[in-house]
Amino acid sequence: MNNDRLAFLCQFFEEDPNDPFNAYALAMEYQQSDVTKAAHYFQLLLEKHPDYLPTYYHAAALFAELEQLKQAEQVYQKGMQLALSQQNTKTYQELQRAYRGFQDEYLS
User: Fold this and answer.
1) What is the CATH number of the domain that holds 43?
2) Model's pTM, two decimal places?
3) For the segment 71-80, what is each residue's pLDDT rounded down to a tens digit?
4) Which of 2, 53, 65, 89 has the highest CB neighbour count under 10 A?
């Protein structure tokens, strides 16, 4: 984790907590060093910015890694639905592949 980058990201989030990218950037940065904080920012995004599609792939993978399997499955499914509603075929396919891998690894 780069402390300077983290400080900048925290500053951006404090200046504009309503911009979903600021929370997303923090979640992604914290994935490398503090998965609890990463999960917090992903959860914040899912609750306050449910239409922010980039969240779903990484959030679901993190919840699976944390063995929060029900939540991971729900996030994958909601992300696929959102991608379809936004007509984002590429992201839908990426989420679908990741979800199938998740099912194979954790649910079978």
Assistant:
1) 1.25.40.10
2) 0.93
3) 999 999 999 9
4) 53
